[in-house]
Amino acid sequence: EPGGYMRVGIPDTELPRKILEHEIDNVRQLGVEIKLNARVDSLEPLLQQGYQAILVAIGAHQGVRRGALVAAVAGRPEVLKQFGLEVKSIRGNSALVIDAESLVTSREGVFAAGDVTLGPTSVIHAIASGKKAADSIDNYLGSNGQWKAEEIKAREPLSRDTFIERLEVKRRPKTPFVSLEEAKKLGEEEIGLTEEMAIAEGKRCWRCDLEE
User: Helix %, strand %, coil % for the chain, to 5?
Assistant: First the structure.
């Protein structure tokens, strides 16, 4: 099944399979054909079939999948060398030698992304590496880059003093308590916030997620 490390290495409690399947379906809907259990011993057949660019990406288990543009391989040095690619060692793991900017390997038209270039790292780093490789392949194939989504630039962080100056200090609403007599009957001392108090508490949020 497709999904790599996200399927076999992340528990369902942290990454529900329904969400993973939904994301994979989105990829398929873009026109990507995923071929499973397809052994790839050499890149030559792919090149002979007319593929002008190949992306090699590491998998989370010993298996090779091949699609319209992707050959995902286990990070074994003998497999990578069999592809005719230069290999180096990163923290005891085999990784491909690539150009840091374009992510092209020692063979023209063959690119690499993910753990096979970085060594074991996080999923988000692998995804970012894949996006960078896609940009490079797009340029390599002569595209004008019109497909690229507009990038959102991160805001410059505010200084601590400026941040404090802009804060509107609001005190937390005091939680109402019942009398001792009522507490003995109810078994609780706090009766919770009123609707007005809850709204006021919500407005104290700094909304760090907003642009403005």
Answer: 35, 15, 50
The per-residue pLDDT for 102 is: 87
Report pLDDT for 15.
84
206 pLDDT tier (thresholds 50, 70, 90): low
Count Cβ atoms below 10 Å from residue 74 Cβ, excluding itself: 14
Render 86-103 in DSSP notation, one character per residue: -EEEETTEEEE---TTT-
Q: Compute CA distances 67 → 53, 64, 72, 99, whole Å.
A: 12, 10, 9, 23
Query: Sign of the C-alpha dihedral, residues 8, 11, 17, 23?
Result: negative
In the structure, what pLDDT confidence band is assigned to residue 208 with cuts at 50, 70 and 90? low
DSSP state of 209: T
* pTM, two decimal places: 0.59
| Residues in the chain, total | 212
The pLDDT of residue 24: 93
In order, the DSSP letters of 57-121 are EE-SSS--EEESSEEEE---HHHHHHTT--EEEETTEEEE---TTT-B-SSTTEEEETHHHH-S-
Task: Write the DSSP symbol of residue 145.
Answer: S
Q: Domain 5-140: give its CATH architecture.
A: 3-Layer(bba) Sandwich (3.50)
pLDDT at 175: 78
In the chain, where are the structural domains located? Answer: 5-140, 160-202
| pLDDT recorded at residue 76 | 56
